[in-house]
């Protein structure tokens, strides 16, 4: 995509806990749909190392909100393949009992203890329309499917695709999503 726009972006593939980037050179560090997977203590140390003194950490998450038949059916199909027959929150989200704007309350305390000052947290909704094939692409990004082999994941997604086509036909499905944002300044 960047090449199509005439941009030459250097991509670095590394871990959040050890990015290999230069110290104190960045105004912003952003995290989207991933904080719950990180070793947060190591990641916070790395974020503090990367940011300039007045730098900003943006933590964002998103997910679908709709309670439509499409989503209910999709989740039932996935549950049918889970060893426990249940869908649990991913990563550290599973340990939390309460959230603020979609973020576990424990994260706010952890950020505070690591000298990140909460500036703002907010949420908004948006709708994305999906064909059956696009819906399966969206579902493929769900953390619940990461524990399966490629073959099993393909089997599950094929089952979802076939169900959606049989149940709804070739229509687009509007799916409401929530986006949650927390802005923190390095203290």
UniProtKB/TrEMBL annotation:
Single GO MF annotation: S-adenosylmethionine-dependent methyltransferase activity
Keywords annotated in UniProt: Methyltransferase, Transferase
InterPro entries tied to this protein: Diverse_substrate_MTase, Methyltransf_11, SAM-dependent_MTases_sf
GO biological process: methylation
The Methyltransferase type domain, residue ranges: 4-58
PANTHER family the record matches: METHYLTRANSF_11 DOMAIN-CONTAINING PROTEIN, METHYLTRANSFERASE TYPE 11 DOMAIN-CONTAINING PROTEIN
UniProt record similarity statement: Belongs to the methyltransferase superfamily.
Official protein name in the record: Methyltransferase type 11
Native species: Salipaludibacillus keqinensis
Lineage of origin: Bacteria, Bacillati, Bacillota, Bacilli, Bacillales
């Amino acid at each position: 995509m960047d090449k199509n726009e005439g941009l030459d972006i250097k991509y670095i593939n590394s871990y959040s806990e050890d990015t290999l980037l230069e110290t104190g050179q960045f105004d912003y560090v952003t995290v989207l749909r991933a904080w719950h997977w990180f070793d947060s203590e190591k990641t916070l140390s790395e974020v503090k190392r990367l940011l300039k003194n007045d730098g900003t950490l943006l933590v964002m998450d998103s997910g679908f909100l709709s309670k439509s038949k499409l989503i209910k059916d999709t989740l039932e199909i996935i549950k049918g393949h889970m060893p426990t027959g249940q869908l649990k929150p991913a990563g550290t989200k599973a340990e939390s009992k309460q959230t603020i704007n979609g973020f576990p309350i424990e994260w706010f305390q952890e950020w505070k203890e690591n000298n990140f000052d909460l500036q703002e947290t907010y949420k908004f909704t948006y709708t994305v329309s999906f064909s059956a094939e696009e819906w399966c692409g969206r579902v493929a990004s769900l953390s619940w499917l990461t524990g399966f082999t490629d073959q099993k994941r393909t089997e599950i997604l094929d089952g979802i695709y076939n169900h959606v086509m049989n149940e709804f036909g070739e229509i687009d499905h509007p799916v409401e999503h929530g986006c949650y944002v927390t802005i923190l300044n390095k203290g």
